[in-house]
Amino acid sequence: MSAAVLCIGTELTRGEIVNTNASWLSEELTDRGIEVGAIETIADDRPLIVETLHRLSAKHLVIVCTGGLGPTTDDITSECVAEALGVPLVRDEASLAAIRTRMEKFGRVMAESNKKQADFPTGARVLQNRKGTAPGFQVALGHAQAFFMPGVPREMKSMFGEQVAPALEPFVKGQMFQVRLKTFGMTESAVNDRLDGIEAEHAVTLAYRAHFPEIEVKVLARGDNCADRARTAADAVITRLGPDVVYGEGDVTFAQQLGKLLVERKLTLAVAESCTGGTVGRLLTERGGASEFFVGGVICYANRVKEGLLGVPAPLLAEHGAVSAPVARSMAQGALAELGSDLALALTGVAGPGGGTSDKPVGLVHFAVASLAGISDRQMVFPGSRTQVRDLAAFAGLSLVRKVLLHGHDA
Amino acid sequence: MSAAVLCIGTELTRGEIVNTNASWLSEELTDRGIEVGAIETIADDRPLIVETLHRLSAKHLVIVCTGGLGPTTDDITSECVAEALGVPLVRDEASLAAIRTRMEKFGRVMAESNKKQADFPTGARVLQNRKGTAPGFQVALGHAQAFFMPGVPREMKSMFGEQVAPALEPFVKGQMFQVRLKTFGMTESAVNDRLDGIEAEHAVTLAYRAHFPEIEVKVLARGDNCADRARTAADAVITRLGPDVVYGEGDVTFAQQLGKLLVERKLTLAVAESCTGGTVGRLLTERGGASEFFVGGVICYANRVKEGLLGVPAPLLAEHGAVSAPVARSMAQGALAELGSDLALALTGVAGPGGGTSDKPVGLVHFAVASLAGISDRQMVFPGSRTQVRDLAAFAGLSLVRKVLLHGHDA
Fold first, then answer.
1. Angle between the A303-310 and B325-339 helix axes, to the nearest 10 degrees?
2. Which of A13, A96, A313, B149 could disulfide-pair with B36, CB 3.0 to 4.6 Å?
3. Across the interface, do B296 and A305 touch by the CB < 8 Å criterion?
4. Do both A10 and A155 map to the same domain?
5. Are B290 and B243 contained in the same domain?
């Protein structure tokens, strides 16, 4: 039993946008135990679309398609499906009324071109679009069930979750349950090696999703007691990787989990960022509710800001240089004092691409966490581009905060 | 004349990573005037790979393929190409020596599994990999020239630029020249409408690339005097969109262009960020050399940081609330004074998803730019998610700095 994902749009074959729909849909299908055999992306080209639909429907039982449902002349998916089926398009008056109502709600008049969005191949089941004007539809194409959805990710995701996923249930063999573990601090291949044998031992499937610099480990169990078995296997994964690597479960971010820990302990955090230039602050405030634990920070890019706002002594900067453990410690202590938080994280490093020396190479970052109870510092050399160095440094800095919260300062 | 992009890897069909290679390669090919007819992504499955190679080579003159060249057992691209060609694999001793040398350089010993990375289909032209161990190769497959490259984006991009692109030159008909214009402040459809007629008038092709919240406009001319014609058409685009929308050309960022303008005028910038939480600082320091114009900033998430570090008066906060024009102005003036810069940008808003009221809805952002010459402020309501509101606010704030630099403060 396999599925195909088909993405239609010349903007995709020209590389004008990155196709995030394909990976999102492939993950959703894989998570449901439906194997994705092929992902194809083709231009808005009628013979090509018709031929591709025939070819995919001969090989797969499910086809999930995005794109080409808009109002413009290059949106031809519905026509092509009708041609592939050998049936005419018919107008669905209920859909037409829904499109008109939606446009009026946003103060717009329905253009003639929008009317074709209510035309579907005869016999199609209409899939409503709660987030936009273009409805989708489902048809039987040969032996395959084919689902057609808009290309706009927000509209597609909503339609998939509400209307396509339930229709896929007959294709999913038996019960299944998945636990998603979020990790930071190990490479994918190291995680993979460390988890060797878990699949056989617990009769589960492990899968990974990379979202730099994090790795998500997905633990999937099928059949009887799948929820219990997935949980037991997930606990075994946590034991193998360690609780410092596995920071949370489900749809949580690293910063959010750290924030939760701070809120539980009624503690607040401030930052002093040099090389990361605001990256840590951005991460800490990515989700709502950050004001419960984050007071703010100082982006001390210039040395005189380190001196003026954080009170780093000029002689310390002169003696050790801005990228040094003493300066990182002084920055953290300054942020603690000036921002009045319970903890403060400071980062200073050489993000590159220029500015490296043999003593202080590109990628070197010093970071420190200060609290009223003491101070801890670390230095690391991160690989990769300027952006990668900055992102790794930000995560490593937040990791040190987590470590101090869980285990206290270095002896 | 069309090309196919083929991406091989079960991590892609399972949706474990987003396929950025496909869009990058499609854009590179399109920019060279080579039309991409299909993008296919398939699992590490031998019969499927062989069948797909046959099918694509019957329809396209160029096949550009990524993935499956690594050392592990699921890396089978070379074997599959050999099978499709009906030839054996042969070991290339020069490649084997290069792999060994590269691994020794990084202090690693070549494993037995790495040796197969030096095996190529008989008759293949080896493509060297300067960024990793896996070499690529080129073969003639039916009427098509097929190029096989590693899936790691950094290695693939380097190999494509240095070895694949030159080999594609015979496929590019005639001369061509492209000007890439970077824009911010208009939607893609608004840009599209505004540029109606340019293509016919100047005999050029316009293409777009969306990178939220920016739009890149690509002006492509072919044939005689293509460089001059592309330039003339690009100037017409700039005139139509206006110099406030078109901020630069080529591989530049909005923040980098603003930095250049500041450096030219020997001016420095500081920021005071509330709702954006460090986003503006991160953007300003994304490329190296930012220390020439950016001194730093204060992330004043909590009101007491607005008061303590920026000197925003408590009664002002009490009277108008943190999200207000008077507070944005006071934050900008405080940053100017405390950080000693020539200009300061302040942002305060409701990023959402919670916290909105009828007076101050989610998406409302007040921003202000202060200098010794005066102060300007704006308020906008941005649509979208929390992340989109923050990113749009950061760009709009930097836009106001640019406006003040180019046109002075509001009267």
1. 110
2. A13
3. yes
4. yes
5. no
